[in-house]
Amino acid sequence: MKALVFHGSGESVWEDVADPGIQDAGDAIVRVDTVTICGTDLHILKGDLPEVRPGTVLGHEAVGEIVETGGDVRTVRPGDRVLVSCITACGRCRFCRESAYGQCRGGGGWILGHLINGTQAEYVRVPHADLSVHPLPGAMDSKDAVLLADILPTAYEVGVLNGRVRPGDTVVVVGAGPVGLAAVATSRLYTPEKIIAVDLAPARLDAAKRLGADAVAVAGEEAEPLVADLTLGLGADVVIEAVGVPETFEMCTRMVRPGGHVANVGVHGRPAVLHLEDLWIKNVTITTGLVDTRSTPTLLRMMAAGHLPASSMVTHTFPLDAMEEAYDVFSRAADTGALKVVLGEQQHDVLMVRAA
């Protein structure tokens, strides 16, 4: 089969690799129909996650069809159309029993495209399939459903829930990339008084307004004065960091009110300064986290009911074999206007022939 293989910092190739097979009784093999590229994949290519070994197939988000299952799999069977979650859950360890699947110690957590071969391929092996794939309604568009694999639950759990967004809050989302936009959309579920989106790219700020931001600001000299002005100098109740660089994290800590919450969602590859000399007296709560995907079934029902905007975040589509082109477009978002890129739907018939 073909897959996008990581070959070290700055290097990846769409190339032939061995087909995956069942290795454990809880495995499922999924024929990939639709995938997307995550900002975390770009962090891997930059060398920010050295634990990803050269030779690993990248990707941790997909929609596809079950073609084979191990003997212990009970919740899905061949022919089922499923969402492949970015998080794999054994279901038995302490953390899984607490629904903290991202911290799974039984061979799960974030492993796809990280510690084992991932989804940016024609086929993918999914361990612990009973808790790690979700059957999809037949009418749900794959282009929408694939956003439930990572960005929507990540924004909702690590941003909105960890940040404790409440009715009447002022919420600032720093970074209007895909996860930041998903944070804008899912913050609206809690009827905040206002949502302020901050980014450098005008196109992303326009997208934030379409998804429910009440005000937008260009990062830099404009953002902090605007937040101060709109909150009468108090600061925001919740600030969600969705970039992953020291400068934006430190800006978030300056914009939060006393007693407020800073929810860090961004993947950081460099240290950030924590200014405790300013923060210790403000009763500020700072949270970090890897998504657990415990909210995926709820978000799936909401999307099926039409209550979650999704397709408006997809700006580019490609066939699966245009993976390298899609990475180029996604990595140059400032030039291309890319938000979320989706691959694979144009190749659906070809892959069905092989699966048959």
Automatic annotation (TrEMBL):
**Keyword Ribosomal protein on this protein?**
no
Any single GO molecular-function term of the entry would be: zinc ion binding
Q: Where does the UniProt annotation place the signal sequence?
A: none
Cofactor(s) annotated in UniProt? Zn(2+)
**Domain Enoyl reductase (ER) stretches:** 8-343
Q: Which UniProt keywords apply?
A: Metal-binding, Oxidoreductase, Zinc
Note the superkingdom of the native organism. Bacteria
**Membrane: is it a keyword of this entry?**
no
InterPro entries, per the entry: ADH-like_C, ADH-like_N, ADH_Zn_CS, ER, GroES-like_sf, NAD(P)-bd_dom_sf
**Similarity-based family:** Belongs to the zinc-containing alcohol dehydrogenase family.
Protein name per UniProt: Alcohol dehydrogenase
Q: What is the organism field in this record?
A: Streptomyces avermitilis
